[in-house]
Amino acid sequence: MDNNTYFHKFKQDISAIELPTRFTFPFCYEPHPLAVTAAKELQYYIETQEDWTHNFGLDSAMEGLAIGKMFGVLVVRNQHNELGYLAAVSGKLAGSNKHRYFVPPIFDMLEENSFFLNEEVHLNALNRKIERLENSEELADTQRNLDRLKNEWDKSLDELKSKLRIQKKERKETRTKLKVSLSDAEYELLMEDMRSQSLKDKQQLQRFQYDMHLALETESNHLQQLLSTITALKEERKTRSGNLQKQLFEQYNFRNAKGQRKNVVDIFHEFDTITPPAGSGECAAPKLLQYAYENQLTPLALAEFWWGCSPASEIRRHKNYYPACRKKCEPILGYMLQGLVVDPNPMQQETTLDIALPQIYEDEDIIIINKPAEFLSVP
Q1: How many CB atoms lie within 10 A of CB 346?
Q2: Average pLDDT over residues 187-212
Q3: What secondary structure letter does DSSP report for 64?
Q4: What are the beta bridge partners of residue 23?
C-alpha cells in the first residue's frame, strides 16, 4: 500500500475552521473542531462500511461476543500542505490488524508465520496439556484415594490409641489393687509383666504408624509426581511467555517529532517501570503518531472516542470522547510528543477563579465538596 492509503481528505468543507496552534494534550482535552469533524466522518464509515464484521454490542441480533472499541483520529498536514486525517483502532479489529481505513500497528504480531503466531501455537498446546492433566481422572482419583486413606488411617490410629490408653489405665488399676495383697517377689513379677506389655503396646503403635506412613507415602508420591508434571509445564509456559513478551517488546520502537527513536522498554524504564504492561503501543494514539512520523505527516490534533458497549472493567459510553490511557500510553506518548508544541496540561494550570468551595462533609479520610460548574472534574 502506498503512503497515501491511510491519509483521508475531509469530505466536509473545513475552510472556516481555524487550525490549532498547538497539538492536543492527550490526557485531558476538548476535541478540536477539526478532530470532531474527522471523528464524525470515521463514525459514518464504521456505520456504513462492508469491509469487516465486528460485534460492538449495538445490535442485539448480531452473534458473537460483544466488544466495544476505542477509535482515534489524528488531523495531519501532508507535504503538499493538504489537510486530512488518519484513523486507528485500539488493538485488533475483527481478528485482524490489516484494514484499508486504519493505520497499521507498530508491529503486526498477527502477520502470517510471525514468531508470535508460531510461539502462540506452542503456548496453546501447553495450555491444553496443563488443562487436560489438571482435569484428568488419574489426578482426581489419586487425590480422592489419598484423602480416603488419610481418613481411614487417622480413624484407625485414634481407635488404637484409645485402646492402648484403656489398657494402660487397666494396668495401673491392677497394680494399685494387687500391691497390698502380693508379696514383694510376686509384685515384682507383676511389674515386669506390665512393663513388657507396655513395651509391646508402644511397639504396636510404632509399627502401625510406620505402616500408615508407608501407605500414605506411596499414594502421596504418586500425587506429587502428577502435580510436579503440571508444575513443570506451568514453569515452561511462564518462561516461554516471558521470552515471547520480551521478543515482542524488542519490536516496539517509537518515534517522536524530533526524528528520534526509542524502544518501549527504555521508555518505561524512565518511568521507573521495569517491564511495560502487556499491550503497550497497541492503543490508537501511538499508532497514529507513529504512522504520521514515518510518512512525513505533521500532527495537528488528536481525538479518541468509544464505539459500542461498555466493558465490565470501566465506564465507556458510545460515541463519547476519552483521554488516552495513563497506564500504557502516558510514558509512550510523553516520548512521542517530544518536538511538538503541545497544549498545557489543564490539571497543572492555576485557576484565577475566586470561588468558595462549599464543604459538605469531612473526616480523616475524605472531604466532600459541592464542585462549581467552572471547575474541571477528574475521576
Answers
A1: 14
A2: 83
A3: S
A4: 342
Q: Do the beta carbons of residue 205 and residue 161 sit within 8 Å?
A: yes
* SS3 assignment for 296-334: CCEEEEEEEEEECCCCCCCCCCCCCECCCCHHHHHHHHH
**pLDDT tens-digit profile of 30-75?**
999 999 999 999 999 999 999 999 999 999 888 889 999 999 999 9
- Residue for grid cell 475552521: 17
CB 270 within 8 A of CB 311: no
The H-or-E segment that residue 163 falls in is: helix 137-178
- CA–CA gap between residue 229 and residue 231 (Å, rounded): 5
The predicted-structure confidence for 219-274, as pLDDT tens digits, reads as follows 889 999 999 999 999 999 999 999 999 999 999 999 999 999 999 999 999 888 77
Chain center to CA of 191: 72
pLDDT tier at 17 (50, 70, 90 boundaries)?
very high
- Name which of 72, 27, 8 is nearest 297 in CA terms: 8
Residue 149 CB burial class (10 angstroms; 0-12, 13-18, ≥19): middle
Q: How many CA atoms lie within 13 A of 21 on its CB side?
A: 1
Q: Are 35 and 75 in contact (CB under 8 A)?
A: yes
Torsion of CA 286, 289, 290, 295, to 10 degrees: 160
Query: What three-state secondary structure class fits 270?
Result: coil
pTM of the model: 0.75
CB-based contact 80:119 (threshold 8 Å): no
What does the alpha-carbon distance between residue 288 and residue 313 come to, in Å, rounded to a whole number? 25
Phi, psi at 249, each rounded to 5°:
-60, -30
Cell of 42: 470515521
